[in-house]
Amino acid sequence: MAYEVNAHLKPSNLKGLSENQIAQHWKLYEGYVAQSNALKAELEALRKEGKGATPLYADRRRRFGFEYNGMVLHEYYFGNLKAGVAEPGDASPLRKALSEQFGSFEAWKDDCVKCGATRGIGWAVLYLDPATGWLTNHFIQLHEDGNVAGFAPILVLDVFEHAYMVDYPATGRPDYMKAFFENVNWAAVEKRFAEASAGKIPARF
Ligand SMILES: [Fe+2]
């Protein structure tokens, strides 16, 4: 058994994010899948050789969190991109929950963009805490520092420079985030919210 590249998640024809930008970014996602598989195999082999207490094993075990989260977050990211999907309307449970908790849907979005503008490389993620129903935006540094145990990812925004530097300059993160929000697959995001609200981990693919 191995992790696989989920080709059906690859978006196309986005507004403000070129095919080349997505293709370059997709290659990095493929790398995380390959590295997750390689590390899993290496860890199993080291255990079989009785090397489970070695510094090498400890290093690989830590690195697995980086590679695996890199794979997972990219799957949620590409899976929540699609051109031409309208923002959730007033009847949307997600819009209602965000409006209740942030004051308005726009106030939540503003907070999410500010989260994505955090200095450093990483991710802005809208999470649901299934235990309380609370929705919060979090900045994840790299792929693994800042993930909250038990929280369910609802909307995932990659703010590494590699996510936009084919199309935008190094200072172009604000314009990239504007483009991102013009391409959110709200139907997929709503589905994740429904699944997480029902106590399930939202499906990645
Ligand atoms: Fe990325």
CATH architecture of the largest domain: 3-Layer(bab) Sandwich
Terminus-to-terminus distance: 17 Å
Give start-end ranges of low-pLDDT stretches: none
CATH fold topology of the largest domain = minor pseudopilin epsh fold
Classify the beta-strand content into a percent band: 5-15%
How many domain units? 2
Instruction: Provide the CATH top-level class of the largest domain.
Output: Alpha Beta
Radius of gyration: 18 Å
Output the helix-strand order.
Answer: HHHHEEEHH
**Distinct ligand kinds:** fe (ii) ion
Strand order in space, largest sheet: 2-1-3
Number of strands: 3
Write the CATH homologous superfamily of the largest domain. Iron/manganese superoxide dismutase, C-terminal domain
> What average pLDDT do the residues reach?
97
What is the molecular shape?
globular
Structural class: mainly alpha
Subunit arrangement of the protein = single chain
Number of helices: 6
Percent helix among the residues? Answer: 40-55%
Task: Report the biggest beta sheet as strand number plus sense, adding barrel if it closes.
Answer: 3 strands, antiparallel
Concise synopsis of the structure shown:
The protein is mainly alpha-helical. It folds into two domains: 18-79, Helix Hairpins, CATH 1.10.287; 93-197, 3-Layer(bab) Sandwich (minor pseudopilin epsh fold).
